[in-house]
Amino acid sequence: MKIFIVMGAGILIGRFLMTGRIKKWNERLAMLCTLLLIFSMGVMLGQKENFLSELSSLGLKSFLFFLIPTLVSIILVYILTKRFMETLRFRRRRQMIVLFTLLALVLGLFCGLSGFDPAPVSFLSRHSDMVLYILMFSVGISIGMHNGILKKIRQYHLKILIIPLGITVGSIIGGLICAVILGISPAEGAAVASGMGWYSLAGVTISRLGGAELGSIAFMSNLMREFFSFFLIPIIASRLNNYTCIAPAAATSEDTTLPVLLKYTNEETVVLAVLNGILCSFFVPILITFFFNI
User: Fold this and answer.
1) pLDDT, tens only, 11-22
2) Could you give the CA distance from residue 230 to residue 198 in angstroms, rounded to a whole number?
3) Rounded Cα gap, residues 146 and 7, in angstroms
């Protein structure tokens, strides 16, 4: 709830900030916060007990649970948005952010694995929520600076449900395909894929319901979905359409992946991404629990 209050405050302030200079600096702030969050993610992973052994033993299964549900979601969202929504033209942007994103993760992993924990790194790890709030405030400013965006969103009516529907159904279908490939039960496969990028909740919940190994697969596969979204969004923006860029991000489209969506699409897509993230996040615990109880 706090995240949306902070974003709302940013939108209100953004209504009064219409200069190109402020927009430019605001975009830089959003990107800096994104890189800091990715670095913090790397530190957290590096400090996770048995991370390397889990990665080596469960890496392939986790990768399949990232790759197949994500691809099916992308395909389904692209088909649905191409059929039912006006296609938004993409904006070509330089892709240096991809390199910076990878560098931030590698540096974070190095700090976490080596135990290198100077005061700034420790402070960042403890206060990553603060960075997220600054990021959401910055994204709110970007949305507020775009005239007529909320009015245009209202014109979609029920069509705003097309993207989260495509992502959710695509993820579940992908999870069922993974279950067949890996020889696990369909319910377990669907549950892992239902994490839709929310790796922390998916990992903990599935560990409790399905055991530590399945929980580790859920954690790593959904973490991969969030991280690789930073690489997939620029590619999808240039090859498909803006709406489909939301598909790999899934539940994370309301927070950590928003700045990349804003950079490679537009403010209209960002608002749809926030709505999608809210809906997908709402259904993650419901779907996981449902599939373990059928």
Assistant:
1) 778 777 666 677
2) 15
3) 14
Burial class (CB in 10 A: 0-12, 13-18, 19+), 235: middle
Task: Round the average pLDDT of the chain to a whole number and report it.
Answer: 83
Closest among 32, 77, 89, 72 to 260, alpha carbons compared: 32
Write out the two tokens for 65. 């649970």
DSSP per-residue string spanning the chain: -HHHHHHHHHHHHHTT---HHHHHHHHHHHHHHHHHHHHHHHHHHHHSTTHHHHHHHHHHHHHHHHHHHHHHHHHHHHHHHHHHSPPPPP-----HHHHHHHHHHHHHHHHHHHT---HHHHHHHHTHHHHHHHHHHHHHHHHHTSTTHHHHHHTTGGGGGHHHHHHHHHHHHHHHHHHHHHT--HHHHHHHHTTTT-HHHHHHHHHHHH-HHHHHHHHHHHHHHHHHHHHHHHHHHHHS-TGGGHHHHGGGGGTTTHHHHHHHS-HHHHHHHHHHHHHHHHHHHHHHHHHT--
Tens digit of each residue's pLDDT (9 = 90 or more) over 119-141: 888 888 777 778 878 877 887 78
If you count them, how many residues does the chain have? Answer: 294
